[in-house]
Write a structure and sequence with these properties.
This protein is an alpha+beta fold and 682 residues long. The protein has four domains: 108 residues, Immunoglobulin-like; 222 residues, 3-Layer(aba) Sandwich (Rossmann fold), CATH 3.40.50; 204 residues, Jelly Rolls, CATH 2.60.120.260; 91 residues, no CATH class. It contains 14 helices and 38 strands. The strands form eight sheets. Strands 2, 4, 5, 7, 8, 9, 10, 11, 26, 27 and 28 form an eleven-stranded mixed sheet that branches. Strands 12, 13, 15, 17, 18, 20, 24 and 25 form an eight-stranded antiparallel sheet that branches. Strands 19-16-22-23 form a four-stranded antiparallel sheet, with no helix packed on it. A hairpin with a 4-residue loop joins strand 7 and strand 8. Helix 4 packs across helix 14 and helix 12 runs parallel beside helix 13. The chain starts with a helix and ends with a strand.
Amino acid sequence: MKEICYKVFLFYMISLFFSCESPQKHPLKLNPLFSNQMVLQQEKNVAIWGEYAPNSAITIKGSWGEISSGMSNNNGSWKVLIPTPKAGGPFELEIITKTTTKKITDVMIGEVWLASGQSNMEMDFDYCCNTTDNSEIELSTANYPDIRMLNITNQISSLPTSNFEGNWKKAIGENITNFSAVGYFFAKKLHKKLNIPVGIIHSSWGGTDIEAWTSRETLNTIDFLKEDMSSYDTLVNKSSKSVEWFSQFESIKLPSDVWYLFLEDPIGKPDKWKKLDFKDDKYISSSYRDYTKWEKLILPGSFDNVFETNDFDGAILFEKSFSLKEVKGDYTLNLGPISDMEFTYINGEKIGSSLGKKSLANKSYKIPKNLLKTGQNSIIIKVINQYNEGKVGEISLNNSLGANESLNGIWNYKVIAEVYNQFNEKEQTWPYYSFYLYEDPSINFSKRPQVQSYTQNSKSALFNGMINPIIPYNIKGSIWYQGENNVSRFKEYETLFPAMIKDWRKKWNSDFPFYFVQIAPFENYNGLSSSLRNVQRKTLKVEKTGMVVTLDIGEIDDIHPSNKHDVGYRLAGLALSNDYGKSMVASGPLYKNFEVSGNTLNVTFDFIGSGLTSYDKELSAFEIAGADKKYVAAEAYIKNNKVYIYSSKIQNPKYARYAWKDTSVASLFNREGLPASTFTTE
C-alpha cells in the first residue's frame, strides 16, 4: 500500500512540474463507456480514456489491486491501460488527478461483446408487437444482474467522433425493455454456460447499409466506390449548407408512419397528417387576394421541379381564380391523381381531402350550395408530398345542368413548407424528417442551396458516429445482424462485408471473432435474397467468423421474424464452441463440394454433427441444372450423410442449389437441429 501511495504522489509532483494550464479550466471527462455498472474484459490490459488539462497526470486505480498512470497530451486527451483479473466483481475504479477523483462503482469483469447491425439486431422488447415471441415472459422473469448492456444512442457524423449518449443497465425486469433482444439472448446463454459477467455494447440502426458502418479509409480502397468517395467532402459540404439553410425556419416533425398512408384502411393514422399546421390559414382565407405575387405553374403536371432540382418534397398551395356568369344547379369538383395527399378549398371553405391511395385515384367533391358565387371564385388545393413524385392531375368543375368548365392551365402556387432530413452535427441532434415552414413572405429562395442530406446511410456515417466512439474499448468479439438493406447489391456485398470485418479488426488492433446472422426468408426481396445469403456464406472464408442460419425461423411476410431467442442462442453457441472451449456443434451444415454420378449430383457438407436429417420429411428447395444453368425443381434424399439430387428433366447435371428463393424454408438439418445454409455449387 505504501508503494502505491508513493507512486501516486510521485506522479502528481511530475505533473505539477510539466503542466502549465490550470486543471480547473479543464474538468476531468470520461468516455460514457466508463460509468457505473460497466463491464470490463477480463485478463486484458484494458484502455480507459477521456479528457483533462493538457500535460497532466492521470492515475487509474482498480479495487482488484492494480494501479496505472499516464499523462494527458497537449490537447488534453489521455488513455491509460490497466490490467484486469479473471472474471468477477463487483469492483470499483478510481480515476485520480491532482484536482479531483472520479469513482466508478459496481464494475464487473467478464466478457464484453459488441452487438451491431440493422433493425433485426436493434429490435428490443418494446418494438411494436413482434420483437420476440416471449417478450412478456422475459420482461417478468429477467433477473441477471451480472448481464449488462449499454445502448449507443443513434447518431451520425461526417468525421470520426469520440462521444455518444448511453449508460450501462443491468438485465433485471423492466430494465431489459430496451435491450437488443438478440444481444440479450446471446448474453443470457453465455452467462448461464460460463457463469461469469457478460457485457453487451449495442450499436445498431434499422434500415442501414453496410457502407455506413465502414470507415472512410477502408471504403477509399474499394474500386467500385472510388468515384463516390472522391465526392465525399463535397457531399458533406453541401449537407452543411443545407443544414444552415433549413435551421433558419421553424420545423414540424414529419409523422413517422408514412407507409400507413398507402394502406386501404389506414386505421386512423392519417389524423397526424390532417392536424399538421403549416401556418397557411391566411392564404386559404377568402379575404386573401394577393395571389398574383405567387409563382406560376401549369396544371396538370409535376411540381417536383419548383426549385429546379426535381426532388421537391413538402407542402405547396395551388390557387386558381375562375369566374361564373351565373350559379345554377349542383356543382362537383373533379380531381385527377394527386401525390401524396390533398386538401381542397373553394372560397376559403374546405370541400374535401384525400390521402394515400385515395389521393392517387380520381375523385369528386360535391360543392355545398351557396358556396359558389356569381363573378370571381377561388379554388385552393393544398398538396403534401413526401413519398411519390409530386404530380397533380386533371381538374374540372362540373355542373348538373351541363355547364362544365376545365380548370387546367396556369395556376398560382406558393411553397409553404419543405421536407428535409436534417442532422445537426454541432448539436448532435437527429429529428429525422421534418417540415420546415416557409412562413415569412420575404424569404429569398435564390439563396436556397442545392439540398443535400447526410444521413444514416451516408458512407461511414455510422462508423464515425456509433463505432469509432467505442474504440479501443476492449471486446472479446462482435455479433452482427445486417444485410437486408444490401440485398439488391449482393455482388458488392461480397466485397463490402469482409472489408468491414477487417476494417473493425484493424481499428481495434485485434483479430477478434466475428459472428453474424444470415438474413431470414421474406417475400419482398424481388428474388435476390438467396444471392445475398450465399454471399454471407462465402464470408466464412474470413478467419474467425461464424454464421447463424435462419431458414427455419423466418416469417415470409415479415422482414422482422419474432424468434429472436434462437438467433441469440445460436450466436452464443458459435462463441461457446470456438472461443470458450465448449464441445458442441454450433453450425448447421455448410456446402463443401460435390461430384456427379450419372444423372445424380452428390453434395458433401461440413458441420454435419451427428448426421444429416430432414426429420422424416421430404427434402425440398433443391434445384438442379445442366450446362445451360437453367434450374428446375429437383428430388433429393440423404444417404451416408450426403445429399443426392436429381431430376428426370436433367440427364447430365452440372450444378445444384438449395434454398434459392426469397421464401425458401429449411428442409435439411444436422441432428443437432441446426439448418443448412443456402448454397450453390456454381
